Amino acid sequence: xxxxxxxxxxxxxxxxxxxxxxxxxxxxxxxxxxxxxxxxxxxxxxxxxxxxxxxxxxxxxxxxxxxxxxxxxxxxxxxxxxxxxxxxxxxxxxxxxxxxxxxxxxxxxxxxxxxxxxxxxxxxxxxxxxxxxxxxxxxxxxxxxxxxxxxxxxxxxxxxxxxxxxxxxxxxxxxxxxxxxxxxxxxxxxxxxxxxxxxxxxxxxxxxxxxxxxxxxxxxxxxxxxxxxxxxxxxxxxxxxxxxxxxxxxxxxxxxxxxxxxxxxxxxxxxxxxxxxxxxxxxxxxxx
Amino acid sequence: xxxxxxxxxxxxxxxxxxxxxxxxxxxxxxxxxxxxxxxxxxxxxxxxxxxxxxxxxxxxxxxxxxxxxxxxxxxxxxxxxxxxxxxxxxxxxxxxxxxxxxxxxxxxxxxxxxxxxxxxxxxxxxxxxxxxxxxxxxxxxxxxxxxxxxxxxxxxxxxxxxxxxxxxxxxxxxxxxxxxxxxxxxxxxxxxxxxxxxxxxxxxxxxxxxxxxxxxxxxxxxxxxxxxxxxxxxxxxxxxxxxxxxxxxxxxxxxxxxxxxxxxxxxxxxxxxxxxxxxxxxxxxxxxxxxxxxxxxxxxxxxxxxxxxxxxxxxxxxxxxxxxxxxxxxxxxxxxxxxxxxxxxxxxxxxxxxxxxxxxxxxxxxxxxxxxxxxxxxxxxxxxxxxxxxxxxxxxxxxxxxxxxxxxx
Amino acid sequence: xxxxxxxxxxxxxxxxxxxxxxxxxxxxxxxxxxxxxxxxxxxxxxxxxxxxxxxxxxxxxxxxxxxxxxxxxxxxxxxxxxxxxxxxxxxxxxxxxxxxxxxxxxxxxxxxxxxxxxxxxxxxxxxxxxxxxxxxxxxxxxxxxxxxxxxxxxxxxxxxxxxxxxxxxxxxxxxxxxxxxxxxxxxxxxxxxxxxxxxxxxxxxxxxxxxxxxxxxxxxxxxxxxxxxxxxxxxxxx
Lengths: 288, 409, 238
Known about the structure:
The structure holds three protein chains of three kinds.
Chain A: H1 2-28, H2 35-53, H3 56-84, H4 89-111, E1 127-129, E2 132-134, H5 136-158, H6 160-170, H7 172-177, H8 182-207, H9 214-229, H10 234-254, H11 259-274
Antiparallel strand pairs in A: 1-2
Helix pairs in contact in A: 1-5, 1-6, 1-8, 1-9, 1-10, 2-3, 2-4, 2-8, 2-9, 3-4, 3-8, 5-6, 5-8, 9-10, 9-11, 10-11
Chain B: H1 9-28, H2 40-44, E1 63-71, H3 78-101, E2 106-114, H4 119-132, E3 137-140, H5 144-156, E4 160-163, E5 178-180, H6 185-198, E6 203-209, H7 212-227, E7 231-238, H8 246-254, E8 259-263, H9 267-279, E9 287-290, H10 292-295, H11 297-303, E10 311-315, H12 323-332, H13 338-357, H14 362-371, E11 395-401, E12 404-407
Parallel strand pairs in B: 1-2, 1-3, 3-4, 4-5, 6-7, 6-8, 8-9
Antiparallel strand pairs in B: 10-11, 11-12
Helix pairs in contact in B: 3-13, 4-5, 6-7, 9-11, 13-14
Chain C: E1 5-14, E2 17-27, E3 32-36, H1 43-50, E4 55-63, E5 66-67, H2 73-79, E6 81-84, H3 96-103, H4 110-123, H5 125-129, H6 140-152, E7 158-162, H7 170-185, E8 189-193, H8 197-203, E9 206-211, E10 214-219, H9 227-236
Parallel strand pairs in C: 3-8, 3-9, 6-7, 7-8
Antiparallel strand pairs in C: 1-2, 1-4, 4-5, 9-10
Helix pairs in contact in C: 3-6
């Protein structure tokens, strides 16, 4: 039971990362690996503003705003010019690594490598709940993620903006023919993705100590979740992320702890090789 | 209209390769060797190529000794590596000032390199120091892993390796030119085990980080505790990169141990262990023991709330109630207890030996190190090296209570 | 120049690749005009030039006396030109209803959108029945209707159709052409590219024959009896 809960907590954060990644992938047609940096960037910004103002609210607002700006700038300054030149997906992928190093090392330079902590909650015992121990931050993570997921679902299915975003993701050329400015929506996907990443970043900052390497770690987990579920579909990516959470936690129960990361990698490679469209994803090439 | 199937095999393999490469590179990318900040006066007095002569003496020119220092400057180890670096720099300044005051025309110059708390990286750092900077003495490493990585290289090249902080028993026999001013972990284990048994512990769980230092301690406990009737009911080894150990802790908890031993390598990992153990609601009677990392002031200040009641060991060579110590610690912002003292005094110990031998005659240095008896430091008490270059170890055990520690033996 | 749509001396292609040479043609109100010819003749390129998704090297295109040669997509849509590309392309992962709504993307008036939607449903009742289905689950013929329906959602004046019967069964081909004829009767002007020369000639008011990027023949239904057409296009290809 505890394992299940741990999996849900982990999966929730991975899901937030995976949605952004999947959305950006679908709309822009390349793998934006620097997405993890948006997460760690947000976490550090949240820490920074919290230490300055001692107000969680200010920290959250600042983080959301700055992260969306970061996301938009990544698109505007680096990806879009390359896309205009019709660069291949591999080139964009490499560019995303460049951004990743830039952001990670920038954070390292500015914040240093010491441990950072937002001790908002103080020492907490877990609370008993159906046989599992739950701490307040963990509860907040699960609930916040859920709220975000619901919000995204409503946005994507019930609004015109969401529909247009999905249209661009589905078929960029056709969208343009229909009068939908795909450039606008490609930029929008970065902003939405970065906002979600920033939520993940804030939640992580509340629950754990920060370190620069976390960006890559969460990127991989989110990426794995998206691939396992199906990167071509946002709901599938969410499911895939929870599966990663489950695999990690249940795997560690039976195997030595060192295998935790290895589990994710093994799953990732298996899926990339044999089922690249994931368990629930849509294979866009096999339609009539 | 283009088809949308991008997942042909070739692209998958490219992606996978790029992903791995990116991980590998980004793991190594935090590579800024922070050079020490000497004051301008010190910088001005350093002249390249003006090297030391043998022997002491009334020479008209100033003799400049050059040594290298290796400690973790980036990564999780930097939490204690950076304060140590500051202490080293302060000690160098103070030593140079003392020599000046005594009328001796001697200067110590030090080059810092990043060991990243990792044997391979530390070895590369040592190679840089010896091959490019031309030093013959290395003050370091800090993590045992670093020292163990450096030793084979320094032994091959007749370079003196003097660590003020590494504790692994494996260092004892790592070389003729290897000395350390910190007791071997065998002494730590030897102190803790009787104490653990004396508390009536019958079953115990071990939570350790996957590094040389922590694993040696773990091995010690694994071997010796059962011999005294204490059963090891859970044994979890955690990768240094892990942030969530709740499942491992769950495994430990379900084994219902009387006590838990924590063996983290770094202060950030201490936080991870302590917080998540606290959240996991162990039985109120459960006792917690640890290594000395957990007891470092910095760790207690950050995570003390989660570690109430923990028993931690500390080396017993600290001079008590020392005003000068307090000043040094405040100036360098070193919140690491004995680590600060040992590091500081180690420079002065080196200084004494350098006065006799200069910095390039390693055999002379070795002779003088061996000859030291009851050397008195400013912040530490007596130092004597045995035939292996080790010092004897006396540990005291303290219990963490409401943000401070209370000695219990 | 009182034609609805006019192409004057158009040279066009894709990047370095030249396709059309000195094209002069027109479309009048309430007309169905067909473009026939062999593969690669440049028929689709003519439609793409009108809709500004190819590169126009020289010449001008006029719509209702306005120069539309370099206008943006949304401007063309607002003027009343709709384009249905080849291949029954739809937004596969969106529902039928969403697909149609996107067709009305540029219409601000919610009521108008609703009215247009109902009109399309009345034209193609199967789209109403399957309005909550995802587009990729539709049959070939239904997808064609969806593509057409979406293009009609914003009440265009001109419809540019690129090979609407491609890949459909004979029965569906017949139905498609019936629909197009019906649409023309509602006042729509249609420019249609077709491989099926026979059907195109029968349905259209006028036809252009394109060969190697140039107009080889122009005429009305009488072209059915033209020797060239008879032997090459009615005997040979479908």
